[in-house]
Amino acid sequence: MSTRAQQYGAQVLRREQLSPHLIRLALAVDGFVSTGVPDEWVGLVVPGQFQVRYYTVRSHTDGELVLDVVVHEVGLVTEWASGDCVGDTVVVTEPKGSFELPAGAEWLMLVGDLTAMPAMARIAETVDLPVRVWAQVADDLPGYLPARAEVAWLGDDDSLADVVAALGWPDTPGYFWMAGESADMRAIRKHLMRDRRLPATAYDVMGYWRASSARQPRAVDPGPIYREGKAQGLSDEEIWAKYDEARS
Fold first, then answer.
1. Among candidates 91, 19, 20, 85, which has minimal Cα distance to 55?
2. Could you give the angle at the alpha carbon of 116 between the alpha carbons of 115 and 121, nearest 5°?
C-alpha cells in the first residue's frame, strides 16, 4: 500500500448481509473528509492483510463511513467480511472520485454489474437529472436503487457491450457512466470513442475488477505473520518488513 496516501484508522460498527454477494459495513472513521464526488472510492486494508482493495463509498455521515462490499467464493476481504468482523480495526485511505457532469448535461445513463451498484445508487440519489440505469445483477436487491431512477435489470447472459451498443441516445447533451470488468470496459470505451464519437467529457467508463480463471495462491500467507507480529507487539511497519523478508 502506498505510504503517500492519507490513511485513517477505522472500526467496524455494523455488518449487514444485503444479499448473498453484497455485505454492508458501517465504519467509524475520525477525521475522514468526503470529496462529495458520488462515485468516490477508498482503499481498505483488513486485519491480517497488507494488500489494499478498493470500494465505493456508499455514504458518509457524521463520521460514519458505509461501504457495500461484493464478496466472492474466495478473496482477501471476502474471507474477513464473511465472518464476525464487528469491532475489528481496519485502515481506509483518502477518497478519490472521477464522476464529473459536463456543463449543460440534461440526462444521465448508468450501466454496471454488482460491483457498480453502490456507485450507481449514490449517483442516482444525488444527481438532480433524469436517470436511467442498466444493472447486471443476479442478486435480488429490492429498493437498493432509488425509485426516481428508471431501471432495466439485465441477466448474467446479457453482454454489457451489446447492451451499450444498442442504447438509444438522446439528442440533448448528457452523461454516461459505467463500471464493471476491465476487459469489457476497454471494449466499451473504444465503442464510445470511435463509434459513438463522444467527447471525453461526456462519459466515464471504469474497470472495477479483472476476470481470471482462478485465484492465484499467495506464495506467503500474510495472516500468520500479521497475527504473530501483533502478539509480539510489533508495529504494522515492522510486520510489513517481516512479510517482505519472508517473500524474498
1. 91
2. 125
Buried b (16+ CB within 10 A) or exposed e, 37-55: bbbbbbbbbbebbeebbeb
> Three cell numbers at 79?
474471507
Query: What are 105-156's pLDDT values in tens digits?
Result: 999 999 999 999 999 999 999 999 999 999 999 999 999 999 999 999 998 8
Characterize the bridge pairing of strands 150-154 and 175-181.
unpaired
Q: Residue ranges per domain, the chain?
A: 1-97, 108-209, 217-248
pLDDT band for 2, please (50, 70, 90 cuts): very low
- Spatial distance between the Cα atoms of 13 and 11, rounded to a whole number of angstroms: 6
Mean pLDDT of all residues belonging to the chain: 89
As assigned by CATH, the class of the 108-209 domain is alpha beta
User: Which amino acid appears at position 207 of this protein?
Assistant: G
Q: How many CA atoms lie within 13 A of 70 on its CB side?
A: 18
CATH number of 1-97: 2.40.30.10
Separation between Cα atoms, residue 66 and residue 174, nearest integer Å: 29
Backbone angles phi, psi at 120, to 5 degrees: -65, -40
What's the rounded Cα separation, in Å, for the pair 78 and 69?
A: 8
From CA 39, how far away is CA 56, in angstroms rounded?
6
Angle between helices 236-247 and 222-231 (to 10 degrees): 140
